[in-house]
Specification:
Elements (H helix, E strand, L loop, with lengths): L1 H10 L1 H36 L4 E4 L4 H8 L13 H8 L3 E13 L2 E6 L1 H7 L2 E4 L7 E4 L10 E2 L2 E2 L7 E2 L5 E7 L10 E4 H7 L9 H14 L34 E6 L2 H10 L6 E3 L1 H44 L1 H9 L4 H42 L9 H26 L3 H6 L1
Parallel strand pairs: 3-10, 5-9
Antiparallel strand pairs: 1-11, 1-12, 2-3, 2-7, 2-11, 4-9, 5-10, 6-9, 7-8
């Protein structure tokens, strides 16, 4: 029986291949959507886990998270600079690190921050942490050597950003991989960012700088200056760092905070939600994003299911037509003594083999597509998206196989009910 089935499939290889490919691509669509959505959830959650609390100016919680944790370029309002000193001196805080945006180099974002972040975000793979105004630490995915001089560009070079000629940062260290957007970042002292953008360190000046920056951003989308205004200042690259934050610090778009305990985290979040600041837990903001992502997944899954139903109907129709064309062959089998059960098994196995092969190739194609999309996303964002199957996927496979077996039974029963005499007269 097996030899007869495979001989029949070889004889009808062109039609069999079309059926397998139709089923494979319909299955691959659903598999790719499921794997990619899961990978995006896991990757983003792991990236946000490194940051317990983010403090910024009142505005969009989602944008605050995307800009400060995932380093997505977007203009953020500035909060008063004295918030940094208050957080750094708060006994409930293990460390607080400012972040300032606005510059880039060769597509890598330049982030102004402090040694607190560079020492706590990841261990150094090589070199040392910056200790002077003209030094920088790079993420693991930044393809620049130690000692290389980085000349920052205001905004993005692709959008016509202006290169700063007042300072070139010298790379002194490289962080170990974190699987986050920070792997593609160039970290520099926040004081250098302030001075480079003409923010002299007076608290009463930062509001005017912020207003000027936001007005410019509104006129030229994508040309951000999160560090403040547009004036260029002189920076001594050999100047030592002073991270004793005072009330005179310029305004900031965000501060990354590491509370000492969970209870401290909730108290700090409550204390800094209001009076000119907004404190958020990255996990809570991601939960809201996941809800939106879940809606998109349901739409894509519905499209995938619809495609699979259409393919199943087409396969069933083609198979029924094929059975009609093979009536004489089926009649000959019955005439030569083949029992009805043998005819049923032959027709059912032929169709089930084709469907099973389509499902198998579909899972392989869907997995490969998810791997490719994740690699492309990781290359652009730095976030590692883990693609893989889980135990619950076995239930889905079992359900698909069971449905396929039932689908293949319909034309098999049609062949089973044919009489030898009627088939031979056809």
């Amino acid at each position: 029986m097996t030899r007869f089935i495979f001989a029949d499939l070889r004889r009808l290889w062109a039609g069999s291949l079309v059926v397998v490919l139709l089923i494979a691509f319909a299955t691959a669509l659903g598999v790719a959507v499921t794997l990619q959505e899961r990978a995006l959830r896991l990757g983003s959650a792991r990236a946000a886990d490194r940051f317990d609390l983010v403090v910024g100016a009142p505005g969009s919680e989602t944008q605050l998270l995307l800009s400060s944790v995932f380093l997505q370029p977007s203009p953020l309002p500035l909060m008063p600079g004295n918030v940094l000193g208050k957080l750094a001196a708060d006994p409930r805080v293990a460390w607080a690190a400012p972040v300032g945006f606005g510059d880039s180099f060769s597509g890598y974002p330049i982030v102004g921050t402090s040694t607190a972040l560079t020492t706590n975000l990841s261990a150094l793979k090589e070199g040392r942490v910056f200790s002077k105004a003209g030094e920088a630490v790079i993420g693991a995915a930044v393809t620049l050597p130690l000692g290389y001089e980085v000349k920052p560009t205001h905004g993005l070079a692709a959008l016509g950003g202006e290169t700063h000629t007042e300072l070139a940062y010298r790379i002194t260290g490289r962080m170990a991989a974190t699987g986050t957007s920070w792997d593609r970042a160039i970290l520099v002292p926040i004081q250098s960012v302030w001075n480079l953008h003409g923010m002299g360190g007076h608290a009463d000046e930062h509001d005017h700088a912020a207003e000027a920056g936001e007005a410019h951003n509104a006129e030229e989308p994508g040309h951000e200056d999160h560090a403040g205004g547009h004036g260029h200042g002189h920076v001594d690259p050999d100047a030592p760092l002073d991270e004793n934050w005072t009330a005179e610090a310029p305004g900031l778009p965000a501060i990354l905070v590491k509370p000492k305990t969970i209870a401290d985290a909730y108290k700090l979040r409550q204390d800094y939600r209001g009076n000119g600041t907004l404190a958020v837990f990255p996990g809570e903001v991601l939960t809201n994003l996941y809800a939106t992502l879940g809606d998109a997944k349901r739409v894509l899954s519905a499209v995938a299911v619809g495609a699979q139903i259409l393919v199943a109907a087409a396969v069933l129709m083609v198979t029924v037509m094929h059975i009609g064309q093979r009536r004489r062959q089926i009649g000959a089998l019955r005439a030569f003594g083949a029992p009805q059960s043998a005819v049923l098994a032959i027709v059912w196995l032929e169709l089930f083999i084709l469907i099973a092969l389509g499902i198998l190739f579909g899972f392989a194609i869907g997995y490969g597509a998810a791997i490719l999309l994740s690699a492309m996303f990781s290359g652009e964002s730095g976030i590692v998206l883990p693609v893989g199957f889980i135990r619950d996927d076995l239930k889905s496979v079992a359900a698909i196989v069971l449905f396929s077996a039932m689908l293949a039974l319909a034309p098999a029963l049609l062949a089973y009910r044919q009489s030898p005499a009627a088939a031979l007269r056809a």
